[in-house]
Amino acid sequence: MRFWAPGLYFPFLLLLVTVSCRTAEWYTAFISTAYLDPDTNMTVSANSESGRYGDSSPKDSVQGVIGIPRANRDQLGCDPNTEYFISRSGEPWIALVARGNCTFKEKILNAAKKMASAVVIYNFLGTGNATVTMNHIGTGNTVAIMIGNSKGMEILELVRRGIPVIMSITVGTRHVQEWMSSQSVVFVIIAFITMMIISLAWLIFYYIQRFLYAGSQFSNQNKKNKNNRKEAKKAISKLQLHTVRHGDREVDLDIDGCAVCIEVYRYRDVVRILPCKHVFHRICIDPWLLEHRTCPMCKLDVIKALGFVVDAQENVEVVIPESVPGNIPVGNSDGALEEGAGAETSNFPSSPTFESLQHDDRLMEEDEAASLIEANLENQINSDSSSCPIGCPDTR
């Protein structure tokens, strides 16, 4: 089972953000002004890309003389009956009004009723030369632009002084701007949080399932290992045990040594004799066989050699033979292992390990008792010799 849900969520979220984005298109306007300075009797002209066309305005070029509302206190142009002061009558003219107090649409329609060729709206006081895109659907073919407050106040003062100002408006640069509405942002955030909650729930479910599966596998493997070790112990208990004594034909105390601990055999060491005729200390070879099952020297599988069948895929199945080959001498190489069940089985111990150990312990106790008796007898003789008077005959 793979955790694939977030991999599908993130492309979908990216698509959702892309669809939610909107594009806004707007155009700048080149503003050219010209007037005759009465002080110098010279024409002053200026040209700058300082205007912005309205959203619903035709993107056309317009030229005319500037006209302003006659009421000095009301330069907003919101009153439908507003009269405009035009320095040159009979020519195309452009209305100059201030922003505020009513919609852009009302200002444009009121000026258009007075036959204005275009409407120029200057921004609020304190905004400098900043402009915005005006929304004025339903104003027809009247050209409408916005200019900055500084530019608008400059032109307004010239007209108030009675100086005719000629303005020319031409289309400037096209701009495309991407933006997201507040509703789209909220929708995307909610969708993102929902996907994260679903992903987190799926992740928790996935890892719980994985943990339970791993736990069951570990439990099964642990049970299998315990069964294997249990059956391996049973197989090891079938191996021959021997206590080393002086004069043993199986073990030479001066030459033979354990290949596991690299130490020579000593008197009364307990050893195991494997089916391959190799001899090791019992305390050395038993842990080795539990882990490796093979002879350290020839790599013979001791468990299989004793007739135990182990299936690695399932629990250990044990087939205990009715008779096990017994007492394989170290020096005997006549292939007793290949003879199988037909070999002689008279002397091989078939009891568990602890019974063999008890037998060896009894032998060791008897040897110790005999040694103690001999030592006491020798001490008695020595004591008798030392207590003899000076005139005792020499028995030597």
TrEMBL record:
Residues 329-356 are annotated as: Disordered. It is a single-pass membrane protein. Residues 258-299 form the RING-type domain. One of its GO terms (cellular component) is membrane. Keywords: Membrane, Metal-binding, Signal, Transmembrane, Transmembrane helix, Zinc, Zinc-finger. Residues 1-23 form the signal peptide. SMART domains: RING. The chain crosses the membrane at residues 185-208. Residues 344-356 have a biased composition (Polar residues). It is found in: Membrane. Its main location: membrane. It comes from the Eukaryota. One of its GO terms (molecular function) is zinc ion binding. PROSITE patterns: PROKAR_LIPOPROTEIN, ZF_RING_2. This is RING-type domain-containing protein. The lineage of its organism: Eukaryota, Metazoa, Chordata, Craniata, Vertebrata.
